[in-house]
Structures are given as C-alpha cells and as structure tokens.
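P.,

For your records, the input lines for the assembly:
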Amino acid sequence: MSLVQLAGVRKVYNPGLPSEVEVLHGIDLQVQRGEFAALIGPSGSGKSTLLNILGLLERHDGGTYRLADQSVDGLDDDGLTRLRRETLGFVFQFHHLLPAYSALENVTMPVLMRDGRVSAVLRERARGLLDAVGLTQAMDLRPAALSGGMQQRVAVARALMLAPALVLADEPTGNLDTASSDDVFALLRQMHQQVGTSFLIVTHDPRLAARCDRVIELIDGRVATDRDTHLVSG
Amino acid sequence: MTFRDRLPGLGFELNVALRFLLEGRFQSLLIIVGVAAGVAVVAYISALVTGLQRNTLEKTLGAQAHVVVSPPDERVVPAMPRSGQAWVLSDTQARAQRLRTVADWPAVVTALEHREGVAAVSPMVAGAALARRGEATRAVAITGVEIERYDRIVGLRKKLVQGQMRLSPGEAIVGMTLASDLGVRVGDRITVDTGQRSETLRLSGLVDLGIKDLNRRAVIVPLRSAQSLLNLPGGVTQIDVTMDDVYSASRLAADLARELPQKVESWQETNAQLVSALNAQGISTLLIRVVVMIVVVLGIASVLVVSVVQKQREIGILRAMGATRAQILRVFLLQGAMVGAVGSLVGVLLAVGLIWAFTHFVRGSDGLPLFDITLSPRMGAQVALIALVAGVLAAVAPARRASRMDPAQAIRS
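Structure tokens returned:
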C-alpha cells in the first residue's frame, strides 16, 4: 500500500466568490514508503498548495487523499493535527525555528508537544540527530546565533525527531548560498539513507531535482510529468 | 501506552507560555506591573475601608449594646373619634416618660440568652442622679448592672484604668473624668442622690469609656443599688444584647419587636446615619474594585492580542509540528493566568507595603496610628484569585484567535 495516495484531488480558493479560482485540477499521485522525490514546477503551478494539502495544513475540495493507510477526507482539525504529528515532518524554506528555544529544545519540541515532557531517552535521540546533522557544538545556541545553513540543519533534525513516515520540505535550500545548499541537500540524502523515511522536496533548483530519485512536475495545477530519474540515468 | 501518553498534562503549554512571556520581556513586565498596580489598589482600598469601618464600628459600638430592649413609650390614648359631621380640634401634650420596668424581664433575659447569634445579655437599670462629694456636685447617669454580664457587653475590664472590676453592694465604678471632677480616688466615697433616695457608695474602680461625656457621667453600680436608688424595686429599664455578628442585630431586633410587647432597637436604628455612611462607602469601594478590575482585564487582553499577532509565525510552526488547537488555546490562557498570578502576587506585596506605610507614617494628633488596617490573608487571597480569574478571562479572546489561526497562512507570513 502506498504511503500517499491522491486521487482526483482538487483545490478551489474563494469558492462562490467572483475571485474563485481552482488551483489544482484533479491530482493523481502516489508516493511509496522510502521514496526520495522532488516536486517541481513554475510559480503559480500549485506546488505549495499541493504540499500544504499533503502536509494536512490545508484541506482539499474534491477527490480522495489517503495518508499512511488512513483516509484524510473526513478528519476534523484535531484528527488532522494528530495524523500530522504522527506521520509527517516539515522543513520550511525559512527554517522556521522557534526563536525563544535553543537548537536542542527546537528538536525536542515535537516530543514535548506529544508527551508533555521530554524523557531522557528522547533527549538523547535529539542529541544524536543534532550530532548526525553536524551541530554537536551548537546544541544549546538559539537560532539567532546560527547561520542559515545551520538553522536548516536543526530544522531537518526536528523534522526527523518523531521518526515520521514522510518529510515534506518546501524549498529547503531556497535561501541558502550554493555551498550551504549543497550541504543541506547532501544531509537530506544522507538522512534518507540512514532512516528510510520518505522525502518529498519542493524545489525551483533543477540541479537539486536532478539529484532526486523521482521528479514530479506540476504545471497549471496538473501533474505534467512524473519520471523516475534512476530509470532515465540507468 | 503509558499514563502520560493518555494524559499529557500541561507540560508543553506551560513551557511555551512561560517562554513566550519571557521572550517578550518588556511587554510581560508592562502588563504584570499593570496587574500589580490594579491589585494593589484594590487590596489597599479594601483593607483601608474594612479597617475604617471596623474602627468606626468599634468606636461606636464599643460603649453600646447591639440591640436594646426597653419598655414601650407611654402614649396619650386619643379620645374616641366621633362619627358623622363633627370636627374635633385637639392638641394633646406628649406624656412625660417615667422610668418603667421591662415586663417579666428575667424570662426575657433567659429567652434572649438561648437565641442563636446572641453573645451576651445584660439587664440594666439606668437613670439620672446627682453625685456629691463635699462642695462638688455633678449630674450623673446611674447604670445598675450585674457586672459580669455588663462586662461582656461593653468590655469593661479592658477599660478599667484604676482599681478593680468589682461591684459588691455599696460599691461603684465611675468614669475617670467624674472622679477627677469630684477629686476622688479608688476607695473614696461619694454620695449619689436621685431626688427620691440617696446612697453613699465606695469607689472600687475607675474606667475610661473612650468618650468624654460618658467618662464625665458614668456611675456604674450593682443592679440592686440602682433599683433602690431609682425606686424601681425588682425592675430593669432595659436589656442590652450583643451579637456575634454585629450586622445581624437589625434582624434580631425585627424578630424581637414582633414577639415582645417592648420597644426593641438595634444599633443600626440608633445610628442610622452611620449605617448609611458605611453602606455608601461599601458601594463606592465595590465600584472602584470593579472599574479597576475591568481596566486590568482590558490591559491584559490588549497586550495578549498584540502578542498573538506577533507570535503568528510561531503559532503556525507549532501547529505544523502537531500542536492541536486546544493546546494553542491553553498556551495563551495560561499566559493570562501567569500574568494574573505574578501580577497579583506583586500587587498584594505592594498593598502590604502601602498599608505598612500608612500605619507607620500617617498618625493622628495623639501620635498613634489613626486606626489599625491590615490585609487579612483571606482578603489578600480573594483579591489575588479575582486577578487570576481576570487574567484567564482577558486571555479568552486572544487565545481563541490564536487557536483558530490557519497554520498554512501563519507559516507563509
């Protein structure tokens, strides 16, 4: 069974108003467990909207969506939140760490949210993740004291904290310089290797997309192409 | 699944609420100072007014009974009205009120003693006389009492300045001013003359009743002496009653007035102006408290509303990471509660300081504090609790707003 199953998913903004606009026209998409896929497309193609729907941050208006063998269609807000917490990790373009918390505290935040406390075992896991992303020395620093690349590494560690089935990354290297960008991308690949989580990465950067196993191209709210780069490159 | 998984407690909410408050240090400080000022004002005013009222009541009621039962006034019985067309013009002179006894007073005393809420009952014979020693003569008020009972009404023991609190037959306790007017000390004798009889009494004690006029006129004698001096054998002219709760006096008086064929007056009736002054004061205090609390609520609410807007992105991140709406709601409600709690703690301490300053620096003409005011723990706790509730209430609207924020939009911002 696929991890993500979208069938005929539509999204309409401002329904019933003169400004009504349909941004997704029936998306069919499946993502398997353990995949490392890129989602590309020009601005306005509906990438972010699709990512938000996949991430349970927005609701779709038509079609069906199953995530981790559970139907999303009829879930209320609490149901969506719980499923999001159990299944998904996020890495945003502007790293979006909580400025009032240290790197380590940012990584353990999903645990605190779920359990009301952070057990010693899970704190160790968080340290291990920060070690793995190369931030052993920066664990107790606040985001403001970290470079953009370092902040994005913290975000990656945080996304992986609860061992989600799928990590959604929205332009994770979008505002980094080339070197940091390559670094972070390498880190994503490395974590993918190590933990086996699926990754879906929205990117503008064709170089990065080319280094993913699968590239899904969205144009005008439809899946234009969906190709397996391994098959192409041999 | 462990217990914690099912009931995660408020660990997350407390942590985030506290961190948000610490992060916006200046804002938090501002609203805590606001709450503290409000709480201090409310607590201080409450303590001040309570102290003032208690002081006024003590001064007023210290030397008088809460309820007095006395014989009904004697009235001129009007002639029977004529029927028909006749008009009668009449002018009746009010009757002179003789000293009369309360009918069947021992039974009334026993009945009163068994009433709920009654602290003490004291039968008394009161009348006018002249006190003489040598050339000096003074008009005095004779009060014939059973000393132990009377003590429980006016606290005579505490007012004794010289001698003993003892009333054997032939003895009297007099006001200190009267004693100096007559030039007598404890152990000396004075003659008391009522016009009908006279008796020589030995002074066993001097008292300071707190009011100059009383000190100049009071002659307290055994009940039996007064009965014979005032020619009222076996009778009493009034029965004094004190209550456990001062304010229940009017209710008892109303009940008694229905049951007994006597005149029954509570201190509220004899001090009607005082009562209305106290009421007006109470209402003003309540008004001040309500207005200050409204200001506090609005202050907390406005700062929290701003904070919700500022924290929009953080709220979005938390929601994306899996915080439920209820969790976000609780984060902001807790912020209100924390601000209310810290603010009220500081406010109560501030009020204690103000009260200390008042009792130490504001002095009457005699160099003593004007009156004693204290913030009772109960009142302090009450004010603090109100501030806490106000904090949570103030946070309701901002918290709802935060919890309803669209996470996708919040992140994009």
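Two observations worth noting. The interface with chain B takes residues 52, 55, 57-58, 77-78, 81-82, 84-86, 90, 92, 96-101, 109-110, 112-117, 158 of chain A (CB under 8 Å). Chain A has a mean pLDDT of 88.

Regards
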